[in-house]
Amino acid sequence: MAFAVAHYEVPVAEPFRLDLTASVLRRLSTNLVDVLTPEGVYLRVLGNAQRPMLVRVSSQRRGTLFVTLEGERRGHRGALETVHRMLGTDRTLREFDRGAARIPWLRPLALRMRGVKPPRYPTLWEACVNAIVFQQVSIHAASAILRRYVVTLGSPIELHDGPTLQTFPDAEVTLRANDDVLRAAGLSTNKIAALRRVAETLVAGTLNEQILEGRSSVDAAALLRSIKGIGPWTATVVLLRGLGRLDVFPTNDSGVAGSLAFVGGSPPELEHVLDALGSQRGMLYYHLLLARLEARGELGP
Hints:
By secondary structure, the chain is α+β, with helices and mostly antiparallel strands. It is about 50% helix and about 15% strand. α11 (about 215-225) packs across α12.
C-alpha cells in the first residue's frame, strides 16, 4: 500500500473557530482520541491500527483550514471528506444567530462562542458509543469510562513529534471483547448489552448512516429507539452528534437543566427558547457545553 503525507487547504464558511469546534468534539482534555495541542492543532487518527490515517488540522488563515494527512494515499480523499463533516466546515448558522440575538441571557454567550460549528463523529458507531456511555452519568464520569474503553480496546499511535493518540475501537472489536473486560472499563451490564445490540445491528448492515440520512429526524430517532437500550435522549444525541441534525435537542437532560441555570440564571422556559432558535436549536446544546467548559478552564488548547 502506498503511504503518503499530503497537505491540503480546506475552505470554511466564516466565521469559524477550530479551537471551539474541537473543544465541543472532544468534551474534556482527557480525551485521547480527539486531541487539541497547546499550539491549537487538532489531531485525530481515523481508521484502525492496521490502516491508520493521521489527521492534523490547523487554522492559520481566515477562511481556510490546513489539513495534513498521513496514511495510505488511496484513503486521502475519503479522510478529507470525513474531516469536512467532522468539523462542520460548510455549515452556516444564521437561524441560530438570529434567534440567540433575541434571547438576552444567550446573546453574550453566542457572541463569545461565535465561530463554533456543529461537529460530527466520523462514524455512526462512535456516535452511538458516546451517547450510550454518557447516559445518566456526569460528563467527568462518562469521560473517564470512555477513556478506559478506548485504552482497553483501541490501539496507541505514537507520534514522533507529539502526544500518543488512540484509535477508536470499532464495532467488531467491541463484539469480540469479553464482558468482564468491558465491565472493568466501567461499563454497566445494561450499557454493555446496548453496545452489543448496536454493534450487531451495524455489522449486519440492518442499520447504517445512509438509512438514517434518508429519513426525517423524527423517523430516524424512532428507528434508533427500536434498538433496546436507546431511548429518546440517546437517539437525539446520536442524531445531533452523529448526523449533524440541528433540528433536535436533548430535553429531559439534567445536565442541560443545570447548564441553563448556570448560563441564564432564571431563563425562560426551554420550549420558548427552542422555538426562537428554530431548526438550528441543536446549537444550544453545544453552547451550553462550551459555557461549562469555559468555566472549568477546559476551553481550547
